[in-house]
């Protein structure tokens, strides 16, 4: 992440004193403060670095000291942790950052940030079954990753039975779920990722057609065809069947348009009915069809909108 620095310096007759620091001090995050004495010679120089309350300067929130020597070219980093900062992310907090040299005090007003870092949460898939196992990956982007503990909380948005998981997510109920991660040092701010748990239903199923009669007589009023739709694992299908009847003549299929019907399929069962008027609207003289075959085309859609690859025909 991009970080901007503040520079503070003062020029004395013989040398220039410099303090350089981030423009934001993060709560409970180690920050480097650079101090330097340019063109300095001679003995060692001790520099006291303090963080003071703003605006009263009545309390030292953090401090450290460094010694500038000819061996380190009179420049060095001091480290501040900011453990005593007031933890209120809803309030803008400023502090005084000071570097006290032997003869000069450098001071800047710096804003305190409660953004400890960023957490990226990624599940290995977006859809799980109740008994599947999911792993969440967490990637804290901070300057001191080892010092940050992450709490992973699994919260269910629909069901009241929710559970915690540090590494793996197990025994999940169907519904919408959310993985929430927080820094322990900043529990007010959270990061989350959504995923879904669904019962797995094999989409493939078969449709069987069984006519109640093997023949349609010229004086018959109707012909009933039973529809049986089941998933390959045995569960009955609930949905809708779209049915059309027709006749085979000299190898050609001719449909009866008025026979097109929408049939409910409940618990795997449905019934389609061909009526004699469906036939006579296309062939007024039904005697012309004696010896020809009647066909029925059925396409079944489940309640979720799935259907077999091709309509089945009898």
UniProtKB/TrEMBL annotation:
Major localisation: secreted
This protein's record includes keyword Ribosomal protein: no
Cellular compartments annotated: Secreted
Limits of the Complement C3/4/5 macroglobulin domain: 18-113
Residue ranges of the TM segments: none
Entries under InterPro entries matching the protein: A2M/Complement_sys, C3/4/5_MG1, MG3
Keyword Lipid metabolism included in the entry's annotation: no
Pfam family, one: MG3
GO cellular component: a single term: extracellular region
Domain Macroglobulin: start-end pairs: 199-280
Keywords: Disulfide bond, Secreted
Protein name: Complement C3-like
Upper taxonomic lineage: Eukaryota, Metazoa, Chordata, Craniata, Vertebrata
Gene: LOC115390826
């Amino acid at each position: 992440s991009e970080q901007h620095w503040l520079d503070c310096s003062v020029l004395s007759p013989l040398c220039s004193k410099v303090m350089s620091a981030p423009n934001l001090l993060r709560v409970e995050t180690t920050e480097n403060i650079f101090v330097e004495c340019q063109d300095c010679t001679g003995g060692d120089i001790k520099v006291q670095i303090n963080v003071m309350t703003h605006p009263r300067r009545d309390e030292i929130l953090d401090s450290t000291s460094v010694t500038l020597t000819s061996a380190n070219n009179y420049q060095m980093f001091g480290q501040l942790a900011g453990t005593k900062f007031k933890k209120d992310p809803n309030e803008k907090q400023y502090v005084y950052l000071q570097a006290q040299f032997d003869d000069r005090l450098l001071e800047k007003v710096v804003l305190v940030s409660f953004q400890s870092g960023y957490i990226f949460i990624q599940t290995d898939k977006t859809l799980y079954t109740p008994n599947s196992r999911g792993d969440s990956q967490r990637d804290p982007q901070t300057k001191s990753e080892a010092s940050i503990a992450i709490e992973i909380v699994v919260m269910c948005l629909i069901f009241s039975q929710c559970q915690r998981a540090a590494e793996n997510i197990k025994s999940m109920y169907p519904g919408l779920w959310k993985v929430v991660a927080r820094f322990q040092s900043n529990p007010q701010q959270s990061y989350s990722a959504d995923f879904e748990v669904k019962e797995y239903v094999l989409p493939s199923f078969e449709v069987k057609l069984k006519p109640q009669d093997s023949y349609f007589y010229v004086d018959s009023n109707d012909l009933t065809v039973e529809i049986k739709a089941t998933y390959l694992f045995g569960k009955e299908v609930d949905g809708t069947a779209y049915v059309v009847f027709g006749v085979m003549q000299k190898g050609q299929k001719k449909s009866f348009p008025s026979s097109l019907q929408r049939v409910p399929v409940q618990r795997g069962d449905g019934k389609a009915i061909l009526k004699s008027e469906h036939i006579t609207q296309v062939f007024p003289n039904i005697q012309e069809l004696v010896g020809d075959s009647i066909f029925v085309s059925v396409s079944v859609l489940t309640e979720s909108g799935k259907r077999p690859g091709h309509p089945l025909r009898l």
